[in-house]
Amino acid sequence: MNERGAPETSSLDSSILSSTVTDLQERAYFFPEPPPTVKRGQMKTLDSSKYQVAPVRAGYTDRILQLDLSSLTTSITEVAPDFRRKYIGGRGYAMKMIWDGTTEETRYDSPENILVMASGPLGNEPRFPGTGKFVVGTISPLTETFVDSNIGGHFAPLLKMSGFDALAVHGISTEEVVVIVDGDEGTVTVTTAPSFGEEIDGGGLEYGEALLKEFTGGELTENVAAVTTGNGALHARFGIINSLFYDRRRRRIRSKQAGRGGTGTVMRVKGLRAVIVRSSLARVKANHPADKKSVQQAGAELKRVISQQDPKQLNLRAWGTPVLAEYMNKFHLLPVNNYQYGQHPDAPAVFADVFLERYFNKEVPDGCYMGCNLACAKGAEDVALTRGPQAGRKVGIDGPEYETLGAVTCQGIFDPHFIMEYNWYCDEYGLDTISMGVTAAFLMECFQRGYLSVEETGYDLSWGNIDAADRLLHETATGEGLGKICGQGVQRAKRWVAEKYGAKTNTPIDETMSELGKFGMEVKGLEFSLYITKESLAQQGGYGFSLKGPQHDEAWLIFIDQVHNEIPTFEMKADALKWFPLIRTWFNAVGLCKLPWIDVRHPEAAQTDNPSQNQPTLEYYAQYYGATIGENKSLQDILDDSERLHVLQKMINVRQGKGTREFDQIPLRDMAPAYFNEYQSRSDYYDDWLREQLGTDADLPESPEERHQTILNLRRQAYQRLCDVVYKAKGYTPEGVPLRKTLEKFDLLEEKAAALLQAHGV
Ligand code: SF4
Predict the structure, then answer these.
(1) Residue 152 CA: which ligand 1 atom is closest?
(2) Does ligand 1 have an atom closer than 6 angstroms to the CB of 152?
(3) Of ligand 1's atoms, which has the minimum distance to the CA of residue 131?
(4) Which residues of the chain form CATH 1.10.599.10?
């Protein structure tokens, strides 16, 4: 066994790997060296300034804290009413700052890249469920365009109470720093990042906890929170940001993650080790809504629906999101062996009842912010680590969410304890559980299909090999061995595999790339989240058109399309692909969690034209919004406001070279059984599907191979038709670029945008 507990397999061919690494460095696949770090010792103040804490009025402080790490200075921007009206908050603020403050030349590690953390006007209201969310937005190391990732916990509420709607981090520090925003004292302080010993300094969870204890003198309370990430974020493009908060019921620091797109990588590249916020103001009075009574009423209604309906529906309060695993497996949607199959006989080993029995506390509701009675953020105490550098320790683990579970089944592994350990190590290292698992699964499939051999990988990457999956995880965190490749994500790993394969077989690289493109599960450089979409055209579009890449938070249509069959026609699917991204963008702009809306159906929704939109619940949100900001807001107003943000994000993609039709194309495996073995695994189902499409038995091709090929052709055609229809509905050209009139409608046709359209012939 090696030091991490994984068996020693065939030794890594160091000459192959080192030549590979050199090649890759020359092509700038890898990061530049991280900024030189201080030899950590104590927290040494580098800059400190006093400010007057702005009060919150109608959900806003109208101030953004600007932090320039190149000069180690801070400043405050006052938000103009027009800016607030047009860009709302959260994701809207982040993308507007990126649109204005960066150019097409800006990369994730450019000093001018901005890391924005922003909540919105509806954040921080314990009288309404799900108000602890904020968005982290930046130029992504994976996609090289704007990415946003939402995250819970107490950080954003405390930041708002400290006088700021958002924090915008610019520049790059030459030494790692910690920033402290102290709303009680009215100070912003930049210090050197302290050391807590070698074992702790690299961690995302443990370093943050040590830092919070240092700051509070060991007296942890809910009035202090932090964001931080681990050293894995320095070695992988998919670094996360942990949001750490004190849970008084569990009496420990808990965490939520901004997982997608490498926001934690940007944080560490900037030299930002952590941000601490403190405010002791009472939360229940903190958001100062215009009409407190109406907020209270809307919140009470939504809480009532949750408490009555959730136990009869998904029962997230009891089970957490792992409850989805059973549904996914039943409907062939659980990713197994890199999304080849959607079901597995061993899947019941990772259903929610197993986690509930072995790890979760049934009696403790686990909310990620005050006032959320859906309380789906499950956690576990005293879980013994059996693998990795910390084997033998017992730790508290927050999770797993369904996505983390799916990232492990994607590697052919159905071991609940490994899922728990994978969850903890990814959080501690600062790695996205989704991108990590999907990239590992891609490399495993390359190994299975003969594109990689053990000489190149260093060990046997068979499906279900827990030792290999574990080793690859730790190597990715430290940037060693095959982990150095894995940390680059699927898009860049594809190229590496194609080059290795080409060198030994004389196969042209483009030819291999085309084959790898069938099962390399990424779009725009981001790895897919964990739903099989072969049989859901709606979710194929939900992934392909998603502006940040294939993450379901823009359009999670798999459940309503395939489990509930609520959007059966092509037109309904196309409509859903316009409507859902808009409403979901709004949630990310105002500072709200979507789960109380999307995962708990109002009993009256069934009587509406579109039950899946759950409009009776959305009425509570519209009431809450209007009562907070002091304006009447209809659902249509909300959709219009949101569409402006959606179009702006599309324009950022166009500017960064990721906004046209070719970047919305999805891997063959996302739309069909890409290989014959996938077709064979459900041949009766596929033959029935084909019969229905062709209309008669007589037209059904005779051989299974021909039937498979016909399915592939039909699925490709359907996706292209979907692109045409959805682009038209969104006001884009057939190439996926917004029309001038679309920008005019939302008052976005300024000089820079007009020039960009002109460059695209619009
Ligand atoms: S529903 Fe779950 S994720 Fe959303 S705010 Fe509540 S506890 Fe947090």
Answers:
(1) 8
(2) yes
(3) 5
(4) 538-600+634-759
Contact 128, 165 (CB under 8 A): no
Return residue ranges of the chain for CATH 1.10.569.10: 14-30+332-527
pLDDT tens string 301-345: 999 999 999 999 999 999 999 999 999 999 999 999 999 999 999
Q: Is the CB of 258 under 6 A from ligand 1?
A: no
Contact at 8 Å (CB) between 244 and 187?
no
Domain 538-600+634-759 has CATH 1.10.599.10: yes
What digits encode the pLDDT tens for the residues 38-65? 455 678 999 999 999 999 999 999 999 9
Q: Is the CB of 595 under 6 A from ligand 1?
A: yes
Q: What confidence score (pLDDT) does residue 21 get?
A: 36
Atom of ligand 1 nearest to the CA of 593: 4
CA 369 – ligand 1 centroid, Å: 7
AA identity, residue 277: V
What is 14-30+332-527's CATH number? 1.10.569.10
CA of 598 to the centre of ligand 1 (A): 12
Query: By CB neighbour count within 10 A (0-12 exposed, 13-18 middle, 19+ buried), where does 91 fall?
Result: buried
Residue 448 gets the label, from left (phi > 0), alpha (psi -120 to 50) or beta, of alpha
Sequential DSSP letters for 432-500: -HHHHHHHHHHHHHHHHTTSS-HHHHSS---TT-HHHHHHHHHHHHHT-TTHHHHTTHHHHHHHHHHHH
- We find that the CATH architecture of domain 45-281 is 4-Layer Sandwich (3.60)
For β-strands 224-228 and 272-278, DSSP reports them as: antiparallel
For a substitution probing ligand 1, which of 360, 368, 584 has the most ligand atoms within 8 Å of its CB? Answer: 368
Least Cα distance to 165 among 79, 223, 81, 248 occurs for 79
Give the model's confidence band at 696: pLDDT under 50 very low, under 70 low, under 90 confident, else very high. Answer: confident
| CA atoms within 13 Å, Cβ hemisphere of 361 | 16
CA of 486 from ligand 1 middle (Å) equals: 31
Handedness of CA 611, 613, 615, 617 (dihedral sign): positive
Residue from 128, 309, 584, 593 to probe ligand 1 pocket by mutation (most atoms less than 8 Å from CB): 593
CA of 376 to the centre of ligand 1 (A): 5
- CA–chain centroid gap for 503, Å, is 35
Nearest CA to ligand 1 atom 2: 376
Which atom of ligand 1 is least distant from the CA of 376?
A: 2
- State which H helix or E strand residue 227 sits in: strand 224-228
CA of 262 to the centre of ligand 1 (A): 22
How far apart are alpha carbons 721 and 322 in whole angstroms? Answer: 34
Closest CA to 378 of 397, 391, 392: 397
Where does the chain hold its CATH 3.60.9.10 domain(s)?
A: 45-281
- For residue 314, the CA-to-ligand 1 centroid distance in Å is 14
3-state secondary structure of 264: helix
pTM for the whole structure = 0.94
